[in-house]
Design a protein that fits this description.
The structure is a homodimer of 116-residue chains.
Chain A: H1 13-22, H2 25-37, H3 41-49, E1 55-56, H4 57-64, H5 68-80, E2 84-89, E3 92-97, H6 101-113
Antiparallel strand pairs in A: 1-3, 2-3
Chain A binds a DNA duplex (30 and 30 nucleotides) through residues 1, 4, 6-8, 11, 40, 42, 56-58, 66-76, 90-93.
Chain lengths: 116, 116
DNA sequence: CGCTTGAATGAATAATTATTCAGACGTTTT
DNA sequence: AAAACGTCTGAATAATTATTCATTCAAGCG
């Protein structure tokens, strides 16, 4: 096959047109970025760890069993995605969830898991 | 600093214990796997394209502007995650959403985006 | 059957990214 | 001021993964 597009070009031209109209490229990229943030076990553990009460970086590292440096790197990403917020108290920095939608996203994902 | 754990070991031992109790390692991994599937623009475009009506592989490729091979690889991943289902009709294979939770996950993600 | 076409697959390449290591910054304490 | 500690950050390394290319499979048609 020399060409990578199918011979009829469009099998169903109308469906293709409708599907194209549904797409909003900006939203697609932003959605992918959010899910990308949630797609790492370490970050899920962090979010889960602080889901009920705030924790300092040091304690988060203890809970998720990783180095403080690794946690700090991940918290930076979570902060940029506005999923966590921080509160400074002396030397310590306490992190907590910034968004109730994180809860809903988790629950929706778990609901999907429970079907098998 | 020679050690990677903070000096007090636990800043708040009780909070750490409670956070630890909340974690279920199996669920964490599975959740990450689902979000990982949703964390790619191409796969989001595919899911979006077939969200209203089924499309054959060829037409999906046309809609998302990628080669048939790339789409086929991605559909394999979406199938493994039970997010899409396929229906064979002659030479063509038609794909559609397998799970209404995908809709909810998208909407929840978009709702998060709208806060800024 | 032989040929064409749509879809699936395996290997190779390129790009993205999580973690580690070393060091810097800011705060507290002596 | 100096030392200690929690946190942050940049560079390097290792691992994961999306895409391309070539090939194979399966179905329809001459």
């Amino acid at each position: 096959m020399s060409n990578n597009i199918c011979q009829i070009y469009y099998v169903d031209e109308e469906r293709v047109a409708r599907a194209r109209a549904r797409m909003h490229e900006g939203t697609v990229i932003e959605l992918a970025d959010i899910f990308k943030v949630l797609a790492e076990p370490t970050r899920i553990r962090i979010l889960h760890a602080i889901s009920e009460e705030e924790l300092c970086v040091c304690d988060i590292a203890a809970v998720v069993n990783a180095t403080q440096s690794a946690i700090s790197h991940q918290l930076r990403i979570l902060r940029a995605a506005r999923l966590v917020k921080s509160r400074k108290d002396g030397k310590m920095v306490y992190y907590s969830l910034d968004d109730e939608h994180v809860h809903n996203l988790f629950e929706e994902g778990i609901r999907h898991l429970e079907e098998s």
